[in-house]
Amino acid sequence: MSTIKLLKARSFGEIIQDSFQFIGRNFIHFTSNFIIINGVFLVLTFLRSYYFGAEIKSFDTIQLVYITIVVIGGLISFAFTPIYMALYHKNNGAHFNYKDIFEFYKANFSKILIYFLVTLLLFLPLIIGFYIALIIITITVIGILLWPILFAFIYLLFAFPLYEYLNSDKGIFECYGYAFSLIFKRFFAVTSAIALIYTIIIVAYFVILAALGLFSSFVGIDFKDTTAIQTAMQSYFEVLSSPLTLLISIVIQILIASFSMSTGIAYYSQKEVLEKINQYDELDQLGQDY
């Protein structure tokens, strides 16, 4: 099986096509390593949700421990795909395992922590800007059709700096500035491609939820009847907290993580467009041949 070249200038269609090809070829390798690295946090989240669920109504020690687990697990999970893609690029293919990934985490722990802290600092102004833009585009003629692109833009604005930070010697703020350059080099091509891919994921997610019957509790009830609404809500949360639903939720998290490889495809594609790294390497190789 041939290796997909990451540093390659891609159009809108090529980003989507190569993303699905990359996911298809590396899905088992990616998910197996993802489960090994993040498995403990996934299991702990499952156990907390199943055994405690809605029982914990006040903020206590267990809640604090759970929040800590969620934050650490979320950070490790979010950094996994950039690390996976960096190792794929470095090894010219999926010629690495969970030990290599773990070593990468260890070697770049300080960078991941700095990224997290700086992102917390920038989160509020970026989100305020996001909602202002959301309101503006909602009242325009195109309106809601641009929502997916705006969501994709915000997602890439948080993801691309981590990719660049882990792949270069730049400072974290410089990486955020570089991320703007990557995104706006071909704004609609890259944001539209990521928006379409994640729209497919979201639609599939809600189809699965509907198939599980999570919304069936609300079908045909009299919303003027308080008792009927309470019964429907109780039925809803019973289904939501069932072991099957929670397990499927974990599977969906893993699937969403695997689709995040499309962000890596977009990052390396835009990096090649901006810096023409691979093009210069090929010219150097031609010069050496002669």
Mind sketching the topology for me?
Elements (H helix, E strand, L loop, with lengths): L11 H40 L9 H30 L7 H10 L1 H30 L8 H21 L4 H14 L1 H26 L13 H15 L2 H17 L1 H15 L1 H13 L1
Short note summarizing the structure:
This protein has 290 residues and is mainly α.
**Low-pLDDT residue spans:** 216-225, 283-287
Radius of gyration: 22 Å
Global morphology: globular
List the total number of helices: 11
Strand residue content: under 5%
Question: Could you walk me through the main structural features you see in this protein, from its secondary elements to its overall organization?
Answer:
The chain has 290 residues and is mainly alpha-helical. It is 80% helix and 0% strand. It has helices at residues 12-51, 61-90, 98-107, 109-138, 147-167, 172-185, 187-212, 226-240, 243-259, 261-275, 277-289. The longest helix is centred in the first third of the chain and has 40 residues, at 12-51.
Key structural traits:
11 helices; mainly alpha; 290 residues; globular
